Records
---
Amino acid sequence: MLSASALASAATPVLAQEVMFKPIIDARLRYEMVEQDGPLPLQESRDADAVTMRMRAGGELSKGPFAFLAEAEGTLALDEDYNSGVNGKTLYPIVPDPENVEVNRVQLQYRTKPLIVTLGRQRINLDDQRFVGSVAWRQNEQTFDALRIEYMGVKDLKVDVTYAISARTIWGIDGGKFGSVNRPTQIDGDNVFANVAYKTKLGTVTGFAYLVDEDVAVPALLRNSSQTYGARFAGAVPLTGKVKLSYLASYARQSDRAKNPVDYSADYVAAELGLDVAAFKLTAGYELLGSDRDAAGAAGGFAFQTPFATLHKFNGWADKFLTTPATGLQDYYAGVAYSLPKVGKAGPLVASFTFHRFSSDRQSIHYGDEYDAQLTLKIDTHLSALVKYADYDRQGIASFAGDADTRKFWAQIDYAL
């Protein structure tokens, strides 16, 4: 005769094999305004006003270690007085949130404690997303058709390797229309993203290799084919009960690969310090995307590029440096943030301000300065709100394509189930 505890133990594996369903709902309503100086009076007078609504919906079925996920994504422009990048409204400043309906993710996954294998169209965010990310700030997400293997079978060690045959871009189903050949719906290729990370008491050491081979007939995109090898170290240590020091250092070397018509090599350097003092956080950092002045096949040189990154997170929210200028980029920045845990029944409330000074890697060009400010509020478990502002002030003459005084404002509501 079985005891009650034995019956419970025997039932556990059966219960673990039940089919589970997890719904996915992720909605966002956003207003974005862009004021940007331009070469024509007409362009100077036409500010962009974009009101867009994005919805992602789907679900995940799982049984034991196996899971199948499917998710659709749709973006609607409620006010399309802006250049989406693919709608042909080129007299307006660009707001890269085109209308779109697509399959955002569809993947089969096997997951256990030491091993996760994901096959299909999927979201990939590696480290701080400086080289590979989902571009979550834009309404249409960047996803990859890929096979990803994550192995955690050795204590404190993680091996993460992805082979991707296609990147589904933020430009959506109208990518490539109205002459925007540099903004396709998808970019096919043979891409390998490899990370090996080891945790220590002081932080995580990561070695990485990103091999990009863009199989397209567009010269501007072929120039993104590259091989990047590097390492990063990131961690934090408590100094006192209410004071914590965080730090990051990274270096990488990039050169051309596959069909890239430019023969070049360039360096990447990043360093950042953060100090948490009670509710305040102070941050200061430096980032270099170097330039090769002797790059063969590129007049004026060629610089370090990160085409699959979540670029909005880096080098200012005005998005002036999504493509690194040929003379390279140095970004000196400092910021302060304040967090209030509760505002009535809501919270946390986080306010932040960041200053950037942008200059070139060579030729001693001061591109400009930027001021960024943001206020976020977590309203409840599912709902959050944001207001955000960026002001880029160009110095001297325009030094690269799109180098113009630019002011941007956002107001946004997010709902996630």
---
Amino acid sequence: MALKVLSALDSAKTQVYHFKAIIIAGMGLFTDSYDLFCITPIMRLLGRVYYKESGYQTPPAVVSTMVGIALVGTVFGQLLFGWLGDRIGRRKMYGLALMIMVLSSVGCGFSICTTRSCVLVSLGLFRFVLGVGIGGDYPLSATIMSEFANKKTRGSFIAAVFSMQGIGILAASAVTMAVCAVFDGASGNVSKEQTPKEADIAWRLILMIGAVPAGLTFYWRIMMPETARYTALVEQNVLQAAIDMEKVLEVSMSQITEENPPPPNPPSYPLLSKKFFRRHGRDLFSCAASWFLVDIVFYSSNLFQSQIYKKYVPDGDEVNVYQDAFNVAKLQAIIAICSTIPGYWFSVYYIDRIGRVKIQEMGFFFMAVVYMAIGIPYYMYWNDNTNKGFMVLYGLTFFFSNFGPNTTTYIVPAELFPARFRTTCHGICGAAGKVGAIIGAIGFLWASHNHEGGGYPKAIGMTASLVILGGVSILGMVVTKFFTRETMGRSLEENEID
């Protein structure tokens, strides 16, 4: 028999607190996407400031390192904070993860000194720490939202938290455009050959502004009560869970207090034991494998970026330093508004109507179709393409990723596993995803830059790369079809006992 306080959570009507929780929990995802999508125009600024001898272009190895080092930190953060979230509590770790993100974002902007080598080492160090904070936020935010939500709209609430990534992408572009426009105007419209000293301040300011929204929610985070499911099921304190939820649910204690509290029921098996794998091994495999596969594809968007920029962004030699970064940010904003953000909100609307499994299968399927449509005829048509078709297909990869596995892989691990293992398992799945992200972001970035120079490896040209991504999407669809369980419309306790 379910505890009254948990039954009350499952059947609770949507309240103001749910929307407040979405904002609080979503700030970590906001910071994640802000950092990911502001780094491309920032690399353009860094190239102009520090790489005069390289034609004012940041070398691909430096770009790969800056992207990869944050992802490595994210892997570490997901594993560490996921484990601590089950051992110490979601609430206690939640504020710490946010504080790490805020301080490291500010640190990225300062980056200690002005010489190139010192700046890059310092920036890499702070980006690693930023990745740790972002990684820690993933399992905590998803789990906290899942444990506060009712079972009817739980998917929509968690998807709304994840959709804050879309707002972060748009904010990164808007801030970059605003900062560059202000600096360009203040400098008297510098020529395309000039790189004023103030440009070294511009990229730092862009990075530090990303910490402001997250910092504003810090007080709310530390004031959040521990989730009732952790307090009741892990700490075995049913009365305290009822006291905490009385404030959140706006119900009387008499409705959620147990007349005869059940005796403590300590865990019957440890994490990663034979019994755990017998009961939850399939779920852990399906969630980790799906997340790994989708992140290979999602983060490989770097494979297209050079082609997109060549077609739709003026060449860096034709504009000044601020206009160069402005144009890149503007293109990112257009893509976000037209495809990325709609994908997130389609998931919010349909996740509790269609179900997680169907949306994940559908997303993988259409991603495979789009990648094959771009890849197979690439050298015959798309390589010299001057129409808008390539841009439409590029946008569809983001739309069906977000209205598909990029969102559902964040949701499902927060719903399938027992309360005492929930953040740990979500962290393991998320870490697997970020390993895929490293492969996608760095491996395919390497492939695309080799292609640009005309000397792409014989074994992996653009066509082969795109077809491989289509094949990865098909594999993700297979994993979803045969291994992933549906969690829609069921309580978390029902999901964990199957």
---
Amino acid sequence: MGIQTIPGYMTRGIVVNGHGQRFINEDVYPGLVGIEALYRQGMDVWVVLDEEAFEDVPEAERWGLQPPHVAETVAELEKGMGLPEGAAVGGDGAAVFTLGGLATDDEGRVRDRDGGPIAGPYAAGRASSGLHGGGYISGTSLGPGTCFGRRAGCAAAGAQQ
């Protein structure tokens, strides 16, 4: 067993364990997915995405990885992956703890998918960035949250005038 993927696949699909349950938020730091996969899922982990999501990743960024299972229906995919029948039905079992997620510029303006600023929202601290390692160490977001929170606050106040 093992997971072989790239962040571009994970953020366009869902990550499930050997029971077909989503167990983590896909936009977390990729190292956290690896830690969860190794220590809590026994490396019995899959990234599930549709053809459009696969094609959205530029070929040069796929690192030559090809899906080990391709199916027309969810039932066929479950069977090919060795998941229990009906695994795709049911609740979301994902752990929701993220460090980051919103892309921002230096002034805390939230960026759109093309990198341009979105008029209105600002973000700082754990909503926009994080330090990663073997897990979150309490307090590590205080410095960036303070620094970039101040910058975002000043920028937002300036935008109001």
---
Amino acid sequence: MSLNRLTRAALGVAGAFAVSAALAVPAHAVSVVPTTECATPVITQPFAEWGDGNWYKRVDGGAFEEVSAGWTLTGGATVADGVLSLPAGASAVSAPVCVGHDEPTLRFFGAGQGGLTVAIQFQLLPGLWITLPVGRDTGAAWKPSPIIHMLANYLPAPGDYTNVRFVFTPSGDWQIDDVYVDPRARA
């Protein structure tokens, strides 16, 4: 094995240990900016027809009936005819969404070419947002997205809540509609 390969292998092992160590730390040990301004959500079962009987709350502005002031659209992203259109190279960042331990997943309806990367942003300090990729969707036909585990819902201490934002970035042209969070303990 060449020195270069050996060095890369050693760095890979060291990286794996670092990730393992980071994951071994209780998530609530990471301090996020808490919030107490969480409204009681209206919950529905929008994915029941597809075998998902979980209860969900819609993300503010996530119906895309009009452009929401809380969403940030870049790179040619637009809202028209009740959907969010994301051409390749565009992105959309949701308005802040209040989540806690009892809100573990994200889902939406969508269709597109290529892949759609979904990331979550959470705030460690006022003004400091961290972005973490959490899922990917593919497919040309309109359908519910896979269930995406947002992970950042475990950052606040149990019983606390924090605001997160969702980031949608396509590699091809996409349309999405009706973005929801699963508040399983609030049903």
